[in-house]
Amino acid sequence: MSASGPHVRFRMRIHHEGSIAIGPGKIALLEAVRLQGSISGAARHLNMSYRRAWMLIDELNRTLASPATHAEMGGQRGGGCVLTPVGEQIIALYRGIEETAYAACASQIDAMDQLLKR
Amino acid sequence: MSASGPHVRFRMRIHHEGSIAIGPGKIALLEAVRLQGSISGAARHLNMSYRRAWMLIDELNRTLASPATHAEMGGQRGGGCVLTPVGEQIIALYRGIEETAYAACASQIDAMDQLLKR
């Protein structure tokens, strides 16, 4: 596939007890927390409200056997937030699954691509 | 993974010239057309308006080098609609890609699953 041609996106979601436990939005948020060092910074980075970012992180952590983030001292919105080893593992697994899926399906994706108008 | 535990969904979308050329909605619609033998039947089956179903099929066909469906004689809404060999091929490729992706990622998905609360 050329860069200007069609492109393929896989989106993986893990459903757990009726809601989405892990999906592209939560993974992007974890990556933003890692980059920014806080939930407020991550929320700004993703153009999301602090409230929504906090809620998503909280929801994720309550779904996990062990939390993905760790709040650092310094009070409410001011305090930092870092990823735990579990948080790092979730990002690595999620991005790894995407890569594996693309690689495994390359020839089928190419065949689908051939059916599109040039 | 147990049947009652978390379940994983891959969703593939092929973007082409700024819009989604092929995605889960259009594939489900093609499958419904195959089952029902008409766009109106497919629309009812999917609880979708005839207008929307027709528009999605039209959009899909205009993206493809060769159309996925063929209208049978009998006038407007009354007429039947059958899949062309290209339509069958698109469904087979799409569902095949999903299966390949799940199979290739099984151990990584399992590792992710282990991180969720029981």
Protein described:
Two copies of one chain form a homodimer. Chain A is of the alpha+beta class. Chain A has a single domain, classed as Orthogonal Bundle (Arc Repressor Mutant, subunit A), CATH 1.10.10. In chain A, about 55% of the residues lie in helices and about 15% in strands. The first copy, chain A, is built from five helices and four strands; from the N terminus they run ββαααββαα. A two-stranded antiparallel sheet of chain A has the order 1-2. Chain A has a two-stranded antiparallel ribbon with strand order 3-4. In chain A, strand 1 and strand 2 form a beta hairpin. Chain A is elongated, with a radius of gyration of 17 Å. The model of chain A has no long low-confidence stretch (mean pLDDT about 90). Chains A and B meet through strand 1, helix 4 and helix 5 of A and strand 1, helix 4 and helix 5 of B. Strand 1 of chain A pairs antiparallel with strand 1 of chain B, so a sheet runs across the interface.
